[in-house]
C-alpha cells in the first residue's frame, strides 16, 4: 500500500527519494510523485505509473534541493491518475503533502472547505486534509506543526502524512496514526520511510514514530510531540538489516529468491530456539508468559490472507498437541463484530508486515476487553510487534515479493515451536512424540532444500496448465490450510481463479466444476487420511478432471491415477505442511512467469495493507 519517503540534510534529496520509492515498490502502488524545495521554490512532480517512468519524465527538470518528500500511491479515493497522485498542493500553492491511509470524515471536511471557497483538483481525501490544514494555518496564524495538530484532532481514519512548506524550507512535518513511519537518524540529516529500506545505506539508527505523534524534522533536529502538544522522547532503535537482504541476489524475481531462501529462513527461525538433542525449545516470549499460555481457556488467532492460513494450520496443531481450544478469525471480521473474549483468553496475532490495519485494530479491540496479546510478526519494530504484550519474531528477513512465501513458512515454524513448547509445559504430549517432532522440525530445512533442487520438475506442469481459467486445490487435515494457501498463491500471481477446499467437502458443491479442463491440485502427502484422499482423487478422475498431486516419496498409489505428481520427502504429518507448500509456491510462480504476469507486484495488490 502507499509508501512514503522523505529526506532533509546536506545531500541531494531527489536521488535518495527515488531510490527509496523503488525499494518500497513492493508495497504495491499505481502512481508516484515527489515534492522538493530548492532555490526556486516548491516543486511538485507526479504521475500515474511506475517510479522509473516518473524518473524518466523528470530528466532535465529542477529536481535539485536538500529537502524533499516522495510517494507511491495505492488508490483508495479516486482512480489511479496523474492528478490523483501525491504530493498534493494546497490552494495557496505553498504546502505539499503526501499521505498513506484514509481520512474517513473527508466528505464533511470537503463540504465545509468548499463553502469557504476552496477548490479541489483531485478526488482524494488527502487534498481535503491538506487544505483543511492550510485553512487552520490561515485562520489561526499558527505555525504549520500547530495547524497540523489541530487538524488531526478533527480527523478520523488512519494516516501517515509528510508536509513541506515553501515558507519553511528547512522543515518536514510528519504525523502518524495507524500507518507506519520510520525516521532514520543520520549525522546532520534525517530520512523518512514507510519502512527502513530507503535509509539502509545511510544509518542504522531509527525511530519508529508512534500513533498520535507529530514529528518536526530539520537536518540536525528531530522534535516529537503528541497531539496534546507535549514533547515526547524519541526512542532510538538499532536496525539489524543489510542492503543485500533487499536485493534480488541474481534471481529473476524477489518471489523466486524468497522461495529459494526458505531452507535458510526456516533454519534461522529455529536457530537458538530449538535443540532436539537437549529436547528444548527456548522462546522468551513464551517462557515469560507460560502460566497465561498454558492455563488459557482458549486461544483466538487473528490474521489476514496468508497469515490467516498459518493461523488455521495452528488451530490443527495446537488443538492436537496442547488440547487448548483455538478459534481462528479474520481480523477484518473480528474488529467489527461483537466477539466474546473471556478472562484468560489469549489472542495470537499473526502478521508478516506487522502493519496490517485490520489486524492492528482487532488487537486494540481485544486489548479493550482485557485480552493478553501474543504477536507473531516478521518485521522488527512494526506496529503489531509494538502493540503486542509479548511475541515471537519469525526472522524470515525482508519479504519484498507481494506474495508471501518465506514469511508463511517462518510463521508455521514459529507456531509449531510454540505448540510443542506449550504442549510440553502443559504435559499434553508424550516425551517420545515431543522429541520425534523436534527432530522432524530440525530436519525441515534440509528437506526443503531437497524439494527446491527438484523445483525445475514443476516447469512442464506449469506449462501444461498455464491457460486454465479455474483451478481447485484440495487437502485434508494438516494439508487443508495448505490447499487454501496454494489456491491463494495461484490467484495472486497468475490471476487464474482458484479455490481451496477440504478434499471431502468437494462433493458438496465444487465437484460441479469438474470437467476435462479443470486442474485439481491435491495436497496428498502420506498421513492418516491418505486412503481417503485417494478416494477423492478417484472421484475427480471419474469425472475426467486433471489431477496434479503433491505426494510423499515412495507413494506408488497416487502416481498410477494422477496426471502429474511432484514428490516431497517423507515427514511427520504435523510438520509436513512446511514441505507440501513449497511446490505450490513454485507452481504459481512458474505459471505467473509463463503468463507474463508481474509476479513480484501483482496488479491491485499491496504488500502491506495499511487501510481497511
Ligand atoms: O503482513 P500481513 O501478514 O499481516 O499481511 C496479510 C495479508 O495481506 C497477506 O498475507 C496477503 O494475503 C499476501 N498477499 C499473501 O501472499
Describe the model.
The chain is α/β, with parallel strands linked by helices and 612 residues long. The protein has 3 domains: 3-244, Aminohydrolase, N-terminal nucleophile (Ntn) domain (Glutamine Phosphoribosylpyrophosphate, subunit 1, domain 1); 248-442, Rossmann fold; 455-603, Glucose-6-phosphate isomerase like protein, domain 1 (Rossmann fold). 35% of the residues lie in helices and 23% in strands. It has 20 helices and 27 strands. Helix 19 links the parallel strand 25 and strand 26 (546-552). The model has no long low-confidence stretch (mean pLDDT 94). The chain binds 5-amino-5-deoxy-1-O-phosphono-D-mannitol. 5-amino-5-deoxy-1-O-phosphono-D-mannitol binds next to helix 10.
Class per helix and strand makeup:
alpha/beta
Whole-number tally of structural domains: 3
CATH fold-level topology of the largest domain: Glutamine Phosphoribosylpyrophosphate, subunit 1, domain 1
Q: Indicate the proportion of strand residues.
A: 15-25%
Largest sheet: 8 strands, antiparallel
The end-to-end distance, rounded to whole angstroms, is 11 Å
Q: Enumerate the distinct ligands.
A: 5-amino-5-deoxy-1-O-phosphono-D-mannitol
**CATH H-level name of the largest domain... which superfamily?**
Aminohydrolase, N-terminal nucleophile (Ntn) domain
The chain-level mean pLDDT equals: 94
Total strand count, please?
27
The CATH top-level class label of the largest domain = Alpha Beta
Continuous helix count: 20
Strand adjacency order, main sheet? 3-2-4-1-10-9-11-15
Query: What characteristic shape results from the CA principal axes?
Result: globular
Q: Give the uncertain stretches in residue-range form.
A: none
- From the alpha-carbon coordinates, what is the Rg to the nearest angstrom? 25 Å
Quickly give the CATH architecture of the largest domain. Answer: 4-Layer Sandwich
Helicity level, as a percent range?
Answer: 25-40%
Amino acid at each position: 500500500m502507499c509508501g512514503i519517503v522523505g529526506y532533509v540534510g546536506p545531500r541531494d534529496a531527489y536521488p535518495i527519494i527515488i531510490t527509496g520509492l523503488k525499494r518500497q515498490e513492493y508495497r504495491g502502488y499505481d502512481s508516484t510523485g515527489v515534492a522538493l524545495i530548492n532555490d526556486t521554490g516548491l516543486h511538485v512532480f507526479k504521475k500515474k505509473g511506475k517510479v522509473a517512468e516518473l524518473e524518466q519524465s523528470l530528466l532535465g527538470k529542477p529536481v535539485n534541493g536538500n529537502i524533499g518528500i516522495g510517494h507511491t500511491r495505492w488508490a483508495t479515493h479516486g482512480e489511479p491518475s496523474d492528478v490523483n497522485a501525491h504530493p498534493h498542493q494546497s490552494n495557496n500553492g505553498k504546502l505539499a503533502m503526501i499521505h498513506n491511509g484514509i481520512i474517513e470524515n473527508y466528505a464533511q471536511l470537503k463540504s465545509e472547505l468548499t463553502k469557504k471557497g476552496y477548490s479541489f483538483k483531485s478526488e482524494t481525501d488527502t487534498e481535503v486534509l491538506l487544505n483543511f490544514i492550510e485553512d487552520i494555518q490561515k485562520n489561526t496564524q499558527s505555525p504549520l506543526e500547530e495547524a497540523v495538530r489541530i487538524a488531526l484532532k478533527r480527523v478520523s481514519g488512519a494516516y501517515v502524512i509528510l508536509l513541506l512548506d515553501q515558507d519553511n524550507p528547512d522543515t518536514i512535518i510528519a504525523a502518524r496514526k495507524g500507518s507506519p513511519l520510520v525516521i532514520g537518524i543520520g549525522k546532520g540529516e534525517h530520512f523518512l520511510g514507510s519502512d527502513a529500506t530507503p535509509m539502509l545505506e545511510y544509518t542504522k539508527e531509527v525511530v519508529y514514530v508512534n500513533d498520535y505523534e507529530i514529528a518536526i524534522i530539520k537536518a540536525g533536529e528531530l522534535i516529537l510531540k503528541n497531539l496534546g502538544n507535549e514533547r515526547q522522547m524519541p526512542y532510538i532503535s538499532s536496525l539489524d538489516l543489510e542492503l543485500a537482504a533487499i536485493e534480488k541476489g541474481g534471481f529473476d524475481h524477489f518471489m523466486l529468491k524468497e522461495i529459494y531462501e526458505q531452507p535458510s529462513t526456516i533454519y534461522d527461525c529455529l536457530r537458538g530456539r530449538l535443540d532436539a538433542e537437549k529436547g528444548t525449545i527456548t522462546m522468551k516470549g513464551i517462557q515469560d508468559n507460560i502460566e497465561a499460555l498454558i492455563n488459557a481457556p482458549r486461544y483466538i488467532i487473528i490474521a489476514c490472507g496468508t497469515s490467516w492460513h498459518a493461523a488455521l494450520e495452528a488451530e490443527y496443531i495446537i488443538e492436537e498437541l496442547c488440547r487448548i481450544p483455538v478459534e481462528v478469525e479474520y481480523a477484518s471480521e473480528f474488529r467489527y463484530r461483537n466477539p466474546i473474549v473471556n478472562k484468560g483468553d489469549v489472542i495470537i496475532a499473526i502478521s508478516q508486515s506487522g502493519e496490517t490495519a485490520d489486524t492492528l485494530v482487532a488487537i486494540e479491540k481485544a486489548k479493550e476487553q482485557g485480552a493478553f496479546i501474543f504477536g507473531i510478526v516478521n518485521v522488527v519494530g512494526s506496529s503489531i510487534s509494538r502493540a503486542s504484550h509479548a511475541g515471537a519474531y519469525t526472522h524470515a528477513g525482508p519479504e519484498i515479493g507481494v506474495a508471501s512465501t518465506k514469511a508463511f513458512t517462518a510463521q508455521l515454524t514459529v507456531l509449531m515451536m510454540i505448540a510443542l513448547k506449550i504442549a510440553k509445559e502443559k504435559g499434553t504430549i508424550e516425551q517420545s512424540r515431543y522429541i520425534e517432532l523436534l527432530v522432524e522440525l530440525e530436519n525441515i530445512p534440509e528437506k526443503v532444500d531437497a524439494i527446491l533442487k527438484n523445483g525445475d520438475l514443476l516447469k512442464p506442469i506449469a506449462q501444461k496448465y498455464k491457460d486454465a481459467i479455474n483451478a481447485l486445490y484440495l487437502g485434508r487435515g494438516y494439508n487443508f490450510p495448505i490447499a487454501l494457501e496454494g489456491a491463494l498463491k495461484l490467484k495472486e500471481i497468475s490471476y487464474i481463479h482458484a479455490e481451496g477446499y477440504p478434499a471431502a467437502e468437494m462433493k458438496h458443491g465444487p465437484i460441479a466444476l469438474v470437467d476435462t479442463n479443470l486442474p485439481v491440485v491435491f495436497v496428498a502427502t502420506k498421513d492418516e487420511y491418505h486412503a481417503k484422499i485417494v478416494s477423492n482423487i478417484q472421484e475427480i478422475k471419474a469425472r475426467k478432471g486433471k489431477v496434479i498431486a503433491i505426494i510423499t516419496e515412495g507413494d506408488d498409489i497416487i502416481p498410477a491415477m494422477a496426471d502429474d505428481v511432484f514428490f516431497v520427502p517423507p515427514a511427520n504429518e504435523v510438520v509436513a505442511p512446511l514441505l507440501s507448500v513449497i511446490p505450490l509456491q513454485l507452481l504459481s510462480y512458474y505459471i505467473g512467469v509463463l503468463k507474463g504476469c508481474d509476479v513480484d507486484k501483482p496488479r491491485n495488490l499491496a504488500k502491506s495493507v495499511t487501510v481497511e
